[in-house]
Amino acid sequence: MKNDTLLRALARQPTAYTPIWLMRQAGRYLPEYNAMRAKAGSFLTLAKTPALATEVTLQPLERFPLDAAILFSDILTIPDAMGLGLEFAEGEGPRFARPLRDERAIGALAVPDPSAELGYVLDAVRQIRRALAERVPLIGFAGSPFTLACYMIEGSASDDWRTVKTMRHARPDLLHHVLEVNTRAVTAYLQAQVAAGIQVAMIFDTWGGTLAYEDYVPFSLAYAQRIVAALEVPTIIFTKGGAPWLGQMMASGVSAVGLDWTNDAQQARLLAAGRVALQGNLDPSALFAPEAAVRAAARRTLDAFGPEPGHVFNLGHGIAPATPVSAVAALVDEVRAYSSARAKNNKPS
Amino acid sequence: MKNDTLLRALARQPTAYTPIWLMRQAGRYLPEYNAMRAKAGSFLTLAKTPALATEVTLQPLERFPLDAAILFSDILTIPDAMGLGLEFAEGEGPRFARPLRDERAIGALAVPDPSAELGYVLDAVRQIRRALAERVPLIGFAGSPFTLACYMIEGSASDDWRTVKTMRHARPDLLHHVLEVNTRAVTAYLQAQVAAGIQVAMIFDTWGGTLAYEDYVPFSLAYAQRIVAALEVPTIIFTKGGAPWLGQMMASGVSAVGLDWTNDAQQARLLAAGRVALQGNLDPSALFAPEAAVRAAARRTLDAFGPEPGHVFNLGHGIAPATPVSAVAALVDEVRAYSSARAKNNKPS
């Protein structure tokens, strides 16, 4: 591996600088991505065609000296493979043609065979690894069982996830059944991604933070934890709005906890106490500022996480589609320059 | 005052039971509210006609033995009085005809005179107080300066508040100017509500929790705190997603901190250490469960907050429009019965 900075940071080993990658780094803020997507006709065509997914995955690495590639895909490939019928209407979010709305549909839910229904993802992983030629590590990912259940039961994104939350209160047994099937599906899927070549596995728990305090562990983290335990590569878990449960996430066996921008980085670092790495957590909206302000925000974030090993720089959420490319360039440059200088100054003489 | 349980709880004095009221208790889950709204033609007509606002405010008290009334109004009355042109399109959220989009509009922003432009709210407060006849205390409210700024700058609700957040990073001076004007406007407005008769003032900081960790205090809480200091009645502040800043909110001089459902009630209670009352925090979706589950959830919440004085039972967010009325009845009944029995058993003999 030419650049193993990310892997070393996830293992909390010293690095020459703080590694950086960005959630949704292959995405709509890049003109070359938009051109590819327009040619392909849709997001799903990009995601389901390994050669296109490979090209899109590598696009941000051609522009910026990022320390990781992340598989271009979507968390909803699993419920799609389960037969729920994933659709992306233009200008809207994802939608399922056949959401889980009754006990019969839930009872019939089966774990897809990754090498069959999700073979296109594994092909993309293999092609990306070849194209990367050991330049940087490849991160694979999946949605958390709870986050997948949210979309599967609600049918699309929601302000209040009323259908899934009603099920949690009125029929918790049904929700636990969906979560159980999802856990087995995500485990098999991520194990297959590892076999195909991913070097880090990330679990996106986008909606776990909407659960009541007492519900987060039994309905989200407990299931994600079983997946983490079944994987032989470093793992990262990210729960948007997860601040109330940082301690539990840190004790879940993951290599790193992803923090959104509402988290106090200094307190998270004290709580982690060197037992787990941290990833995050610049507010994506900071990239709409003038360049000098972007650079200042990068330095503030690095200062908050401190000079100790075990920080992976990232945004606190996916990069916004309207982000100026020049701001991303300034961010990546500043993180590298400032953290390199700091690492040099801190080195024991 | 016939029932001063809420006021005693806000002062952290012992009460015969835990007082309860519900955010949006006068609202769309009540058939009599929907009938009134249909007759009036719109939400704004209800809010702007003191006799109708009075009737709607009292509706939930006729059904349930609640321990407070809350003024029927909207947080956006202030920017409406500033001339931004509030509209509610049917089935959608609020929208401003003239959002703040340039330096000139921001420079021209002026503090409205509550007794002139907002006289209808003060009339409603006086009428409600007469109609209540000292039955329970009346809570008045306003939006926090930051939450008002979100709507005023963005023009309507948003997933990511990109316009306001871009201003925070690109032109923080302009955002601070809006916040300064809003602070003076909310202070004058709540002082006028107090003069008209409200007995508790609540500040709704619905969007403060979307700020980056380091931004919440300087852009939201610091301004809200100035308002709290200028009021002579008990105060409650509620920040949705405010878990990362509980300690700062508790130290802000408020009588009570409102907690959303993601907060750990037991930890909040330890952190409050008897210095501040707590309000909350049942997940509103728990009201979609069967009655026995609603009652069990009420008991779990009461157990989490413990038997010490200083808890006001509420939901962790506004009650959902589709909530069954029977579930609200079960909740209010269980909170009264369970907390009465507990208070009796805990009484020193």
Entry summary:
The structure is a homodimer of 349-residue chains. By secondary structure, the first copy, chain A, is an alpha/beta fold.
Shape of chain A: globular
Radius of gyration of chain A: 19 Å
Order of helices and strands of chain A: HHHHEHEEHHHEHHHEHEHEHEHEH
Secondary-structure class of chain A: alpha/beta
Mean pLDDT of chain A: 96
Quote the beta fraction of chain A.
5-15%
Oligomer: homodimer
Largest interface by residue count?
Answer: A-B, 40 and 40 residues
* Major sheet attributes of chain A: 7 strands, parallel
DSSP summary: helix tally of chain A: 16
Helical content band of chain A: 40-55%
Describe the strand arrangement of the main beta sheet of chain A, using strand numbers: 1-4-5-6-7-8-9
Secondary structure: number of strands of chain A = 9
Pick out the low-confidence regions of chain A.
none
Distance between the termini of chain A: 28 Å
Describe this structure as you would to a colleague.
The structure is a homodimer of 349-residue chains. Helices cover 50% and strands 11% of the residues of chain A. With 349 residues, chain A is an alpha/beta fold. In chain A, helix 4 runs parallel beside helix 8. The model of chain A has no long low-confidence stretch (mean pLDDT 96). At the A-B interface, helix 10 and helix 15 of A face helix 10, helix 12 and helix 15 of B.
Record keyword descriptors for this entry.
homodimer; 349 residues; alpha/beta; seven-stranded parallel β-sheet; two-stranded antiparallel sheet; 9 strands; 50% helix
